[in-house]
Amino acid sequence: MGNQSRILQSARTLFNEKGTHSVTTNHIAQHASISPGNLYYHFKNKEAIIRALFQELQGHWDEIYRLPAEPTFADINTMLVRNYQMLWEYRFFYRETLSLLQQDPELEQHYRQVRARGQQDFHALCDMLIEKGLMHSLPPERITMLAEACWMITDFWPTHLELSGRTLSQDTIEQGIGLMWMVLEPHLKGQP
């Protein structure tokens, strides 16, 4: 593993454990067993590291949301499970989204582009499910509302758990997936 990968892995670990506000680039360098100078060779500052981690997360999303040509409910469930696994692996981002975006206009712009593309992708997914006979036909504005509901559940699930005195774990991940199915199920044909 190269230094850049070690830096990102160390940053993600520390951010998940302690939050981004409590972690400095020196902490990251120490955790990655490299010098601060070596870290700065790869990343200008902590914000650049956070942006790179978001880019990594986006790459995972792109892979996760690629469904087979003939999707089944099992494929959709696998997609949801993998999405929630990413939620766990990058939980610092979900916990701190608003704060991170307020502090970094470049990250905010990229995030908003990803969200807009996510809306388009959700519409395309629903259109495909309707075409394959797995989902009832819905007008575009209803699909947009359904996308918003699903996105809100995913984005705010970790925060909701922490505010409720619970933590993100395999059990609570499965509960989050269950909530997603509750929102989707009335619009599906057959049982997931």
Automatic annotation (TrEMBL):
This protein's name: TetR family transcriptional regulator
Keyword annotations from UniProtKB, A to Z: DNA-binding
One of the Pfam families matching this protein, by short name: TetR_N
Residue ranges of domain HTH tetR-type in the record: 1-61
Gene3D superfamilies: Tetracycline Repressor, domain 2 (1.10.357.10)
One GO MF term: DNA-binding transcription factor activity
DNA-binding region, residue intervals: 24-43
Keyword DNA damage among record annotations: no
InterPro entries: Homeodomain-like_sf (IPR009057), HTH-type_TetR-like_transc_reg (IPR050109), HTH_TetR (IPR001647), TetR (IPR025722)
Lineage, highest ranks first: Bacteria, Thermotogati, Deinococcota, Deinococci, Deinococcales
